[in-house]
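Give me the fold.
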Amino acid sequence: MPRLLLAAGGTGGHMFPAQALAEYLKPRGWDIAMMTDARGRKHSGRIPADPIVEVQAATISLRKPIQAIKGAYKLSRGVQQAKAFIRDWKPDVVVGFGGYPAFPAMRAAQSMGIPTVIHEQNAVLGRVNRVFAKGATYVASGFDNLSRLPRGSTHRPIGNPLRAQIIDAIPSAYFPPKDKVNLLIVGGSLGAKLISKVMPAAIQVLPDDLRSRLNVVQQTRKEYLEQARSIYNEISIPHLCESFFTDIETHLASAHYIVGRAGASSVSEVAVMGKPSLLVPLAIAMDDHQTENAKTLKSLGAADILPESEFTPKRVAAVLEERLNDANWLETAARSARSAATTNATESMAELVIAAVRNA
């Protein structure tokens, strides 16, 4: 039985593709373990891996020297933990999905001669993946163009592996709204403060005729839940506001329009579902990779991009009024979004992993 060690960072954007790969390989006879940090464990509940090993990891910022020293020490401890586990468990391949929690396993594996494969979800190669790219058998990517890729790396653009629950929920077609408009508002795995605050206020200033047609499903940070619900109750908008949706695929499938961040998984899910969208890149994202992620859908006419500096109630309301009142644009944008989708990325990733083991 071949053995795979997954290494992924603490956010859903890193963990969900790892979950997709594990879901595919586990029933095909692979023994799978995972290495992450304490934050990553919160997203590991559905990943079919055993054991799930928690290692020490930390982000390193040279702008904060004291924290950088502490972070380097934690990573060093994590690498020693990873080496001990690899010597005992003996994986045939280690697959890294980025984030500093992936660093220990990738460093340990490459120093011990274990084959490694990288998957980069974003359009810009992340800092940890950059460190290990040249030493990896393959560097797979979620987007065709991958910036910051070191020379000598073996690049394979395959798309982003999506969880089975997402793939299974893909609708057969997009049907533009005739009466009610299903508006889905999301903000990444933790929810976004800016989106949580601005969207209820934007909907509040919409013209009455459009506002009366809305059904709103909104992922809202816990501290803004009551505020959002209060506003929607006040203006009589049917709504469902929660801090996290375990059944996000059902809401993606039924949405007519989506407002959200431009993380790699989010953009890929919007595309595969075939939905028009308004994307708000996270301003502090490393190398502004969320803006790069969003450009594919924007270039196809499937999405609008609003930077955080322009994401105000008045500006958002203007975009919603223009887009949601134009059924022809919604249908065309949905079709364009679907054209950017990749549904076989998980299978392609599995093939790279199998090839890395075979060619070791």
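Residues 167-339 form a domain with the Rossmann fold fold (CATH 3.40.50.2000).
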